[in-house]
Amino acid sequence: MSFSIKQSALPLNVSRSVVPRRSPSIRPSFSPYLNLQSNAIKKTTLVSASVSKPLHISSIGSCFHREEKPVVRCKAYETDKSPSAGVKSETAQRVKIGIYFATWWALNVVFNIYNKKVLNVYPFPWLTSTLSLACGSLMMLVSWAVRIAEPPKIDLEFWKALFPVAVAHTIGHVAATVSMSKVAVSFTHIIKSGEPAFSVLVSRFLLGDTFPPAVYLSLLPIIGGCALAAVTELNFNMTGFMGAMISNLAFVFRNIFSKKGMKGKSVSGMNYYACLCMLSLVILTPFAIAVEGPHMWAAGWKEAVSLIGSQFIWWVAAQSIFYHLYNQVSYMSLDEISPLTFSVGNTMKRISVIVSSIIIFHTPVQPINALGAAIAILGTFLYSQVRDRCKLLTMMRSCYIAPSQTSQVVSFAGKSMRNHPGFKNFDSSNNIDERYS
User: What angle do CA 318, 323, 328 make, to 5 degrees?
Assistant: First the structure.
C-alpha cells in the first residue's frame, strides 16, 4: 500500500500517533488510504508535506478509551523504488520463487530415485544416511572456504541451541531412510504426509497448546487417507511403516525445538541447514558404526559393485549430493516466501515424488490405495490453509481490527497481509517450524 503526504516546512514522523477528530455519530472505520493531519500542539495551520516515494504500512494498532476519542497508531516506512520499479521487482520475485520451486521439486525427485536404487542393492540405511550428511557438510565447508557462500557468525550458544534440533533431525532422517529401504518410495511419502497430525497432537497434549475446531477437523482426511493407504498397500512392511511414523514424530520435535531454542538467532536458511547437517553428522556417525559397522559395509559394497558395476558408485554419490541440494534449496526458499506458500509447494513436491516413483519403479497401485494417498495429501493442503487462516485471525485480534474490516485488512494493494512486509515476521520463531520434510 502506498499513499502521499504533503508537508511544507516541517519534517514528518510517520510513526507518531494521529488523533482524528470525528463526531460521535460517525463509526470509526479502517481505510488503507489515510489523510494525516497534525493538531497535537493546537495549531490552526495545516501541516502538509510531499513524499515522492511510497510509504508502506508496517504495523497498525488501535486503542479505545472510555472518555477519549479513538487513537490510531500507524507505523510506515518509505520504499526506495518507484511504483513501476516495484511492479518489476514483484514480477522478478515471482520468477525467482518459481525457479526455487521447480529446482526444489526436481532435486527431490532425483534424490528419491537414486536413494531407492542404492537401498535396493545396498540395504544399509544408517551408512546411506551418514554419507548424505557427510557430503552436504563437505560441500558447505568448501563453499565457505572459497567464499561462494558467506560463513555464518555463530557462537557456542548457537550450537547449544541447535543440538536438540540436530538430534531430532538425525532421528527423522535415519528413520525415513530405513522406511524407504523396506517399502516403496510412494508409500513412505504417503505416510509422511501425516506429519501435520503429529504436530497438532504433540503440541496439544505435550505443550498444552490449543487449536480451533477447524484445525482438528482438517486432520481427519489426513489420518483417514494415511490409514486407507496403509491398509491397501500391496507390499506393506511394518518396519517401513514404523520408520515413516517415527520420522514424522522426530521432525515434529525438530520443529518444536527449533521454535523454542532458535528464537532470535539471526542465521540465513542456507547456513542454518549447513550447521544442522554438520552437527547431525557428528551425532549419527558413532551410531551408524555401532549398528551396522565397517565389516557389513565392506561386504555389502563388494556385492553391490559386482551386481551393478561401477555405476553403483555414481548412484551413491548422486543420492548424497542431491539430498543436500534439495534440502539446501528448500531452506533457502523459506527466506523468500511465507510458510503458507511453502506448504503449498511442499504438497506439490510430495505429489511429484509419489507419481514419479510409481512410474519409474513400476510400483503396483490399486485404485483404493491411490484414493487414500489423494485424500491424505489433500488433507495436508487443507490443514495448511486452515492453520494460516487461524494465524491471520489471531494477528487481527492482537491489532484490534474488527471482523467487519477484515476484507480491507487482508488486502493491501492486492497483496496478502501474510506476505506484506509489515507482517512477514508475525511468527516469533524461525520459519523452519513451518517446514514439513
Answer: 130
Residue 270's identity, in one-letter code, is M
Decide: residue 284, CB within 10 A, 0-12 exposed, 13-18 middle, 19+ buried: buried
Which residues have CB under 8 Å from 306's CB, separation 6+? none
Q: How far apart are CA 392 and CA 415, in angstroms?
A: 14
Q: Would you tell me how many other CB atoms lie within 10 Å of the CB of residue 338?
A: 20
What pLDDT, in 10s, does the model give residues 239-249? 999 999 999 99
How far are the Cα atoms of 57, 137, 180, 284, 364 from residue 369, in angstroms, in the given order? 49, 38, 18, 35, 10
Exposure string over 291-300, b if 16+ CB within 10 A, otherwise e: ebeeeebeeb
Report how far apart, in Å, the C-alpha atoms of 177 and of each of 142, 181, 416 are: 26, 6, 38
User: Taking the CB of residue 38, how many other CB atoms lie within 10 A of it?
Assistant: 18
pTM: 0.70
Domain residue limits, the chain: 1-80, 92-434
**CA 78 – CA 58 distance, rounded (Å):** 10
Give the three cell numbers for residue 109.
525427485
Query: How do residues 202-232 score in pLDDT, each as one tens digit?
Result: 888 888 888 888 888 988 998 999 999 888 8
Tell me the one-letter amino acid at 20: P
What strands lie across the sheet with 17-18, from one edge to the other?
Answer: 17-18, 71-78, 55-63
